[in-house]
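Q: I'm a student working through a structural biology exercise. My instructor gave each of us a protein and asked us to get a predicted structure, then write a short paragraph describing it. Mine is DNA polymerase III subunit delta. I'm not confident about reading structure output yet, so if you can add a plain explanation after the tokens, that would really help. Here is the sequence I was given:
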Amino acid sequence: MRRTQPAATPEATLARIKQLPGLIVITGDEPLLVMEAADSLRERAREEGFTDRHSFVMDARSDWQQISLAAGAGSLFGDRQLIEITMPSAKPGKTGGQAISNLAKTHSSSVVQDALLVFKLPELDRQSRETVWCKDLLSNALVLECAAIPRAALPQWIETRLDRQHQTTDRDTLSWMADHVEGNLLAAHQEVLKLGLLYPEGNLSQEQVQTAVMNVARYDVMALRDAAIDGQAARALRILEGLKAEGTPTPLVLWALSDEIRNLARVYEKTRQGLRAQEAMKSLRIFGVREQRLSRLMDRLGSPLVDSLLSHAHDVDRLGKGIPVQGRLDDVWQEMSRLTLRLATSRSR
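A: Happy to help. First, here is the predicted structure for DNA polymerase III subunit delta. I'll explain a few features afterward.
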């Protein structure tokens, strides 16, 4: 049986189980969380005698037979083996997929063996999870999911990290700090450690934190899209300013803003043809979190307003190409701000 713990941290899951299984999967796209999960697992593995560690980075072009050979060869000194397989992408190829399926079946999570196999994978999307090799792997492994920290949970995450070094600060300061490290969790971790080195244990004032913390936010276009769609106008505009300061190409920013507008326009078109909204999204391969977000946006924006926003996006595209548009600002970033604000705040009557 597959044993996933989406609500618990990998560290908490490892602390709860009595004995490590023969097959473990660490999955996630946040480098810091994946690194910490792997470190906790290695420490636990050493306690259980898995002291002979081997590491492999594998993809579709790799020789997957070497994993099987390593797992079956045993240690020269009789130690239990920890075999880590890092996959930069969830595309092992036909040969790799078959090898993973075979390894999963012979190193079931319910069987304790002298070789512990640990797969480190990026966050798995719906398409990856539907592949045979992935189903075999996840159904036989203990899965440690390193879920990304959403913006709303970032102040609490920082507070927890500060508490580990016996420091505290007020909510406003935590929120300020979250704004300045958003999108860069590793840098956030480093800034918390810096506070531990600069100041003694106890309460930290906002002035102390602001003096110590650099602006290390790293913005991405997907965060801009999500903030605008979720109606977070101030945050969306702040991210847009960050993208501008970082020199992000305007076509990429516009694509992120307009992509879901186009998707919603397609949904409305299909509903006019007789499909229900959920059926329309399914036909457009919009699932999961995207479906939920688009449904909320649909509740807020009617078809005429979507058409107006789409026209606005086309005008911004022309501005980016140096073509003046009557009724629009000459500066493409300023007009993009207006589009962002409309997307975040507009509501059909």
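A: Here are two points you could use in your paragraph. The chain has a mean pLDDT of 87. The domain at 151-212 is CATH 1.10.8.60 (Helicase, Ruva Protein; domain 3). It's a good idea to check both against the output above yourself.
Q: Great, thank you!
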